[in-house]
């Protein structure tokens, strides 16, 4: 491993909080294979309860969950265990949310889809170190598509409002939305 990457350490407890159950179960298996003692939950409520009862050494928390904001889990975990290393995941990457996550104590912030190797590197990066760049970063087309999808969701799937906010023609937006996501 790189010098900037640490070993897991004696406390291998890891809390995963994500409401996408198939993704959560895959990540749970992948992290267990990498040596973590994983506890996976599907909601902010469960995440706060676990962070309060048994604060883990590591956590991976989705930003947007059905019952609230994942940053609430990060805050509770920081109160109970200031040395915990926390990675915030989101499908709605934005600079403002990244700054908010880091300010309340997240170690790193990753956009979905992030694979288990990227997450482990973010969790184990040494203090002051930077993890290596991702092996398979998103293409520029994919980043653009993700941004359009995020704005579309924020506009409650209103095509006209999304087109206005993105300063693009409505028909162009409809064509983009009708296509599959680029790789």
TrEMBL record:
PROSITE patterns: RESPONSE_REGULATORY. Keywords: Activator, DNA-binding, Phosphoprotein, Transcription, Transcription regulation, Two-component regulatory system. Residues 13-127 form the Response regulatory domain. Gene3D superfamilies: 3.40.50.2300, Homeodomain-like. It comes from the Bacteria. GO terms for biological process: phosphorelay signal transduction system. The modification 4-aspartylphosphate is found at residue 62. The keyword Transcription regulation applies. InterPro entries: ActR_PrrA_rreg, Bact_response_regulator, CheY-like_superfamily, Sig_transdc_resp-reg_receiver. GO terms for molecular function: DNA binding. Member of the two-component regulatory system RegB/RegA. Involved in transactivating anaerobic expression of the photosynthetic apparatus. It is a transcriptional regulator that is responsible for activating expression of the puf, puh, and puc operons in response to a decrease in oxygen tension. PANTHER family: PROTEIN PILG, STRESS RESPONSE REGULATOR PROTEIN 1. This is Photosynthetic apparatus regulatory protein RegA. The gene is regA.
